[in-house]
């Protein structure tokens, strides 16, 4: 094999130069790859355009279940989102003294099935038997979105 060193590069006189067709196919494949990865990123970013708002940020503790109302809204325009299905709803009481929340709730509480009231408002019967701070974790499937919307909000149970 005839090789000569030119500068820091090795030069091979038998190496074929890529054709214009080969280069255009490589460019097309790169463009398709960039487009597909961009679309995949948009599908995962879409759920971040929604948020849950607690309409009853403070509730009274009770031995019976207390109805808690939340609203799902589109962040861009603040409009309520209707037709979403709340899949996973969890309520846990967290100690206030901790600066960082542990991975699991200190004391899990019961949450009943969500009832849609209209205008993006959902009523959740929940167990607020003690005073303190609760974290409500919600997951909902919004029509037209690939990924579920997930959010965590804080609710306080107090007598005043």
Annotate the secondary structure layout.
Layout: E1 4-6, E2 9-11, H1 20-45, E3 50-54, E4 58-59, E5 66-74, E6 85-93, E7 107-109, E8 115-118, E9 121-126, E10 132-141, E11 149-157
Parallel strand pairs: 4-11
Antiparallel strand pairs: 1-2, 3-5, 5-9, 6-7, 6-10, 8-9, 10-11
Organism: Paeniroseomonas aquatica
Keywords: Membrane, Transmembrane, Transmembrane helix
Region (Disordered): 1-20
Can you tell me about this structure?
The chain has 160 residues and is of the alpha+beta class. The relative contact order is 0.20. The chain contains one helix and eleven strands, in the order ββαβββββββββ. It folds into two domains: 4-46, no CATH class; 49-157, Immunoglobulins (Immunoglobulin-like, Sandwich), CATH 2.60.40.10. The radius of gyration is 27 Å and the shape is elongated. Mean pLDDT is 75; it is low at 1-7 and 30-45. The strands form three sheets. Strands 4-11-10-6-7 form a five-stranded mixed sheet, with no helix packed on it. Strands 3-5-9-8 form a four-stranded antiparallel sheet, with no helix packed on it. Strands 1-2 form a two-stranded antiparallel sheet.
